[in-house]
Amino acid sequence: MKLKIALLPGDGIGPEVTNQAVKALKAIASEYDHNFQFTQADVGAIAIDKFNDPLPKETLDLCKSSDAVLFGAIGHPKYDNDPSAKVRPEQGLLKLRKELGLFANIRPVKAYPTLLNKSPLKKDIIEGTDISIYRELTGGIYFGKKELSDDGNIASDLCEYSRPEIERIAHLAFKSAQTRNHKVTLVDKANVLESSRLWRRVVTEVAKGYPQVTLDFLFVDNAAMQMILNPKQFDVILTENMFGDIISDEASVIGGSIGLLASASVGDKYSMFEPIHGSFPQATGKGIANPIASILSAAMLLDHFNLNTEAELIRAGVEKSLKLKISTPDINPASDKVTTSIVGDFIEDFIFNPKDTNLNFMNIHLGQSTII
Ligand code: IPM
Ligand code: MG
User: What is the pLDDT of residues 286-300, one digit of tens each?
Assistant: First the structure.
C-alpha cells in the first residue's frame, strides 16, 4: 500500500519519540512491501519560534494532502506560565483537529500483564482491564465562545454541542462496542449540564440501532472514582471533549505509565495518530522519554488502513520489549542504559526478526556479555 504520511513531531520529546515510530513504520514498509512516504512539518512552540504561528499554512496544507498525520507532542513551559500569551502552542493542535474534522479521539487503555506491578493501583483491580475511550474532539468547551471582560475580571467558556456532533461519534462508539464487549458507558454530568442532557437523549436514540450493545450512564465525578475502584467494568467509554481529556489521563495510570497510551483521531476524511502524553520538556533530549505511545499510535495508523497484520506485529514487538524489560526509566527505573532510541531499535529489530529470541540484540545494545 502507498501512504503519504505527514510527520509533525512538534515540541519537547515529540521529535525523539516520533523518530522511533517512524523506524517501526519503515521496517513494516520494507517487510511487507509497502510504500510509506514521510514529509515533515512544524507545529506548536517550534512553529511559533520560526513563523509566529503554531499551525503554519504549509503544515496544514501538508496534512490535507496526506493520507494520515503522525503527531508528536506540543507545549512549552514559557507559555504554560504566561496566561497573557496571545499565541500558544496548544492552539496549533486544536486548530489542526478542527480543520481536519477529527471529531473522534480513540484512546485504548490496557493493563499489560508484564506491567501489573508498575501501576500504583492494586494488581487485582487492574488485571484484565481493556477500555476504549471515545472522546469527542472538535466541540464542547474547548471550542465554544471565549470571553474576557474589559477589566479582565470575568471570563467565560461556552460548552455547546449539537445533535449531529453527538450522533456521529456515538455511532463510532457503538460500532466499536459491537466488535468488543458490547457495552457503551456514556460519561456526562446530566444532573447539572444542559449539554449533557442532550448527549443522553441523542445517545439513547442512537443506541436503539445497536440492540446487541448495552448502554449505561455515569456522571463524570462517579466515573472518575469508578475508574480507580473497578476499571474492569468498562468496555467503551463515550464522552465529550473535556471529560474525555481528564478521564483518559486518569485511566493511563492503569497501564503503569502515560508513556504507553496511544490515540487515533478520526474524521470523515482525515486521520491523525498521536500519543496522549504531552511534550515533557524536562526530559527533552535526555533519551528517557518512552517511545511506546508513539509506536503504538503508528500501529493504530496501520489498523486504520486495514493493515492489521502489520499493526499486530508492532504490538507484539512492544509486548516483547516490555516482557524483556527493554524499557525506559518510567517503567524500568533500574535501567539507565535503555534509552528512547534503544527501545525503538529493539522494536525495529523485532519487526525484521520476530522469531529471534532477541538475546543478541540485548547483548549488543545493553553491553552485556555474550554467553555462547
Ligand atoms: C490531549 C492534550 C490536549 C488536549 C492539549 C495539549 C491541548 O491534553 O490531547 O489530551 O487537551 O486535548
Ligand atoms: Mg490531555
Answer: 999 999 999 999 999
- Tell me the DSSP string of 161-200: --HHHHHHHHHHHHHHHHTTTSEEEEEE-TTT-HHHHHHH
pLDDT at res. 359: 56
Report helix, strand and coil shares of the chain as percent, to nearest 5.
45, 20, 35
* Residue 163 CB coordination number (10 Å): 12
pLDDT tens, position by position, 308-326: 999 999 999 999 999 999 9
Residue having the nearest C-alpha atom to atom 11 of ligand 1 = 245
From the CB of 16, is ligand 1 less than 6 Å away?
no
The dihedral built from the CA positions of residue 336, 340, 343 and 348, taken in this order, carries a sign that is negative
296 in helix, strand or coil? helix
Tell me the whole-structure pTM to 2 decimals.
0.94
**Length, in residues, of the chain:** 372
Element (H, E) at 275: strand 271-275
- What mean pLDDT, rounded, does the chain reach? 94
What pLDDT is stored for residue 371 in this prediction? Answer: 38
Question: 134: which 3 cell numbers?
Answer: 471515545
Ordered domains of the chain (ranges, CATH): 1-103+261-372 (3.40.718.10), 120-255 (3.40.718.10)
Residues contacting 7, CB < 8 A, separation 6+ = 18, 22, 38, 39, 40, 41, 70
Is any atom of ligand 1 closer than 6 Å to the C-beta of 319? no
